[in-house]
Amino acid sequence: MSDGSPALAALLLQDAARFDAAGKLLANQLVDFPIVGRSMMPALADGTVVHVSLCDGAACDAGDVIVFRMDAQIVAHRVVHRAKAHLVTRGDGRITPDPPVPFARVLGKMSDPPAVSYRRKIARLCEGMIVIALHVHPSIAALFARVLIGLERWHSSAR
Description:
This protein is α+β, with helices and mostly antiparallel strands. The chain has helices spanning 5-14, 16-25, 118-136, 138-158; strands at 30-34, 49-54, 65-70, 73-82, 86-90, 101-102, 106-110.
């Protein structure tokens, strides 16, 4: 980890365009990012500091935990699928995936990602069931997805 790691993270929060330019010059540089939120629980708790190797989405594959920009937030989620110019990601503690992430929004990937949790395996099963339902009829898949999202929210609020 370099001495400039906190400065690079601060630059990201203040000026995303300058950080992107610096990131291209500092490919594979390690930067520390704090995890905020519960979407990667239990493997990454709120407040955990992770080491991220700067890179763009082209260097990421399924299974990697990446850090990327989603609107005004910095998000750390696992890649569940890689397409031509986008990544599909999801927090290990969630069932539903994020909207596709363009390679250009990726800041880097964790240098020491946590192991796959049982929640991710359950989420993969749910994804498969929705895909099967989609082949039957889109409205059935949508209904099933709404039920799963409701169950996920209920489970989260019950904790």
